[in-house]
Specification:
- The chain has helices at about 15-30, 40-55, 70-85, 110-135, 160-185, 205-210, 220-235, 240-260, 265-275, 285-295; strands at about 10, 30-35, 60-65, 90-95, 140-145, 190-195, 200, 260-265, 280-285.
- The chain has about 325 residues and is α/β, with parallel strands linked by helices.
- The strands form two sheets. Strands 3-2-1-4-5-6-9 form a seven-stranded parallel beta sheet, sandwiched between helices. Strands 7-8 form a two-stranded parallel sheet.
- α1 links the parallel β1 (about 10) and β2 (about 30-35).
- α1 (about 15-30) runs parallel beside α2, α1 packs across α9 and α4 packs parallel to α5.
- The radius of gyration is 20 Å and the shape is globular.
- The termini are far apart.
Length: about 325
Amino acid sequence: MDSFAGRIAVVTGGGSGMGRELVLQLAAQGCSVATCDVNADGLTETARRAQKEAPDGTRVTTHLCDVSDETQVTRFRDEVVEQHETDHVHLVFNNAGIGGGASFVTGDREEWDRTFAVCWGGVYNCSRAFVPLLVASDDGYLVNTSSVNGFWATLGPGFPHTAYSTAKFAVKGFSEALLEDFRIYAPHVKVAVVMPGHIGTDIVTNSRRLHGQPDPDRMSDAELDEMRADLARRGLAMELADHELRGFMKMVGEGFRENAPTSAAEAATIILEGVLAGEWRILVGDDAHRIDAEVRADPEGIYRSSKPLLAPPV
């Protein structure tokens, strides 16, 4: 695939972050895009910005869809076929994801299951729905977003990350397994696994909202006490007044986005360049390359390290 012009792409999680940037950059290059999210306002803004820069004849459609729900994903696929008047697509970016479900031992099972259902189940559901449309094309590419947590299953000392890491390992394994599967049964379709490091997105803030967690300003005394207890369990005991703890929580979400070494736009550019180059393994960010090298050099010792390798969201 030497150009995105005239192609049709599907992008999940297009309401913000890397998903939005993928939509914007694809549309600007003349690729029609169908994008989904659970955030209607975010989708509207993505479409407005994408159409503004897209060449004439480029179609951008938005679709409300929870990728963890197979029924909604099937409806999304049917809407794409109808609205783009097509029986095939060329590109599928399984990008949607949320954080949460940090501890398997002490965490809330509903949050754990929800995180896994979106981060792995979303990739599985959308692949089941859209891979036949990739196979129906003359040149297809399935692009699955894993994470550095797909080869390093923690955020560092004091920060278990079990649901997200488990899901991202599954995405990585699935993508690698498809290399041979496609080579035999659909040789005109490629697959890539994307391994981003710390990218400047709103995943921390969005994940809290999607898990039904209150805005820090509306956290109850009991919720604040539980947050203090959780920080203490992680070795981060803090003597903070209620208003200071609320401010800390806000700062975590905003800081994760603003202090990231790689912006969402830069990440999308790296991903799209990797696709055009025919790569099957796309590392995004210097931190991703560094962590990959450290894990490969000492796969046992990496879990004994006392230094954080990523900025840990609470």
